[in-house]
Amino acid sequence: MNHVLSRLLPANGRAAVMGILNITPDSFSDGGELYSADALNRDSLLARAEAMAAAGVDIFDVGGESTRPGAAPVSCEEELCRVIPAVRLLKSRFGIPVSVDTSNAEVIRAARDEGADMINDVRSLTRPGALEAAAASGLPVCIMHMPAEPDVMQNQPRYENVVADVAQFLRRRVEECCQAGIARSNIVVDPGFGFGKTLEQNLALFKALPELVGEGLPVLVGVSRKTMIGTLLKKEPKDRIFGSVALAMLAAQRGARIIRVHDVAETLDALKILNAVEGGKR
């Protein structure tokens, strides 16, 4: 059965807020809070998800592999052990769509079988079998620009023109997804802020968001608590809430349709104000 992306997005034109649930011991901002000692912290996950649900989150995003700069890869078996119990728990307790942040075909299939509603892949479905698994799932997908694996992606990233290069990559990958059988209407693109990009390159991409939006597909922006904010504000990850909310609002003003964040309540407050002022117009 095909799932429709539009059902995951607010009908009033407000950007959807995607709440981050990292089932990892090593994520840069909240590693170990929901997963430690090789086990899912069920109570912590439920508490975090309940707070997000109470705030009005639109989509949960569950990931079992840290993709912070320098992160080590995780085996498919380990990722399955982290992600699938979390998806099962969320689907049993909440009526909120669940996105799964994964690059592995086996995880895509298992997540679909547990009722996941979306696949969010930082590697743009390039791992063996991932594109075919995503197409067979019928789920909406988000494909992201990342020039290299997380352990080396920040080693002197270079572009001819970062905006043109990212747009070209996403354009090409979208066509490959369509050729594999994924409906264009079920594809979201993510420019990959913080993934193989310097501060200057990130800022150039952010300024150019209207150009990426103009390509005609929904754009996901994930900048929550990232290094670019820390560099600008000289603050540690958990002290970057105000900077994250400011960028979320700017992203929504520039046409982003999904904002991926740690701080759901604060982001939603800002976006509700923006939507009220702009009357639902992006």
Total helical elements: 10
Straight-line distance between termini? 31 Å
Look at the structure and give the CATH class.
Alpha Beta
The strands making up the biggest β-sheet line up spatially as: 8-7-6-5-4-1-10-9
Average of the residue pLDDT scores: 91
Q: Percent of residues in helical segments?
A: 40-55%
- Kindly identify the CATH topology: TIM Barrel
**Structural Rg:** 17 Å
Shape: globular
Overall domain count: 1
CATH architecture label name: Alpha-Beta Barrel
Number of strands: 10
Q: Which structural class should the secondary elements be placed in?
A: alpha/beta
- Series of H and E elements: EEEHEHEHEHEHEHHEHHEH
Q: Specify the CATH homologous superfamily.
A: Dihydropteroate synthase-like
How much of the sequence lies in strands comes to: 5-15%
Largest sheet: 8 strands, parallel
Low-confidence stretches: none
Describe this entry's structure for a reader.
This protein has a single domain, classed as TIM Barrel. Helices cover 41% and strands 13% of the residues. It contains ten helices and ten strands. Strands 8-7-6-5-4-1-10-9 form an eight-stranded parallel sheet. A two-stranded antiparallel sheet has the order 2-3. A hairpin with a 2-residue loop joins strand 2 and strand 3. Helix 2 packs parallel to helix 3, helix 3 runs parallel beside helix 4 and helix 9 runs parallel beside helix 10.
